Amino acid sequence: MYKYINKIIVVILMLPFSVFAEMSQKDIDSLYITPITIEGIGSTVNIELPVDSISGYRWFLVDYNYDYIKGVSFEHQSHAVEKSKWGGLDIFKMKVHDRFKKIPQKIVLEFECFKPWNTSEVIKKEVIILYVPN
Asked: Would the pLDDT of 77 be above 90?
């Protein structure tokens, strides 16, 4: 009887983790379809990407041009259920660089989401920012 109680307890403890759906590339492809437009030097933009923080996934900013835009801050919200069906949200705050050229630019930010201990399953997302000088 005692060995069955342990199994029942394990099943009850694992049940909440099975409620959230597994992240997929298809779900992420529907985010940030249209470019983000910003105007003026010093403008900032927040990029919010849903994340399955229960399973250990994290978003990483992989590639961008440091001459045009710079990272200001990063925040992880592990209980952002209202904005993410996976239970978490990674927020990247970016700012147009002060020494930015006076011409319109298209900036592409490349993000990857994976478990740091397992890089074989990678979800990718490109976010396009259109900069229009004043």
From this structure: no
Alpha-carbon span 97 to 107, nearest angstrom:
12
| Range with the poorest average pLDDT among 4-8, 30-34, 74-78, 87-91 | 4-8
Joined tokens for residue 98: 């002060």
CA distance 129 to 45: 9
Q: Distances from the Cα of 13 to the Cαs of 7, 19, 25, in angstroms?
A: 10, 12, 28
**Calpha distance 131→39 (Å, rounded):** 6
Between CA 59 and CA 109 the distance in angstroms is 12
Q: Which domains does the chain have, with CATH numbers?
A: 21-132 (2.60.40.2020)
CA distance 64 to 132: 18
- Cα gap 76→90, rounded to integer Å: 5
- C-alpha pair distances (Å), 74 with each of 7, 17, 52, 60, 99: 40, 25, 17, 10, 22
